[in-house]
Design goal:
Order of helices and strands: HHEEHHHH
Low-confidence stretches: none
Largest sheet: 2 strands, antiparallel
Mean pLDDT: 90
Structural class: mainly alpha
Shape: flat
Number of strands: 2
Strand content: under 5%
Amino acid sequence: MSRTKPKTPQIANANQADETLAEIASLTRELATIDLEMNTAIDAAKADARDKAAPIQARIKTLGDALGAYATYNKAELFTKVKTINANHGRYGFRKTSSLKPLPKLKWADVLDKVVATKGFAFLLRVKKELNKEAIRELPESQMEQLGCRLVRADEFWYEVEQDEVENVA
């Protein structure tokens, strides 16, 4: 199979460049409309699924609460030797759980402040390791090379479409 070079439109003057920007703006608006229609359809589908699922979820919650009430009421009889009852369509039982919560009238931010202020508890903190690329940009090139990076400068083309002006012209 032979390879072909892609054909890009040729722009000969500033007027054609301006027309190209106008076409880009028009196509960008068209894409925005497509995205809006897609998001509207997705939102409608989610709302429909939420509406259909709500009564089913409510029924599952009611049945689960009833099963929990039955197990709690009959705990002394059912769970004397076992922690889990194996039924025909599933299992139910009690398990030991624990959850970590701040003391009443405190929030996690208060606990964090106390951990930071108290010596010997630094092991309770997690620190995310992240490079400060802005600071690295300020280093001399020799230090950048020591770190295994370099600053690459390029003159890249860019364009920006003025949406308001194009809408008035179009």
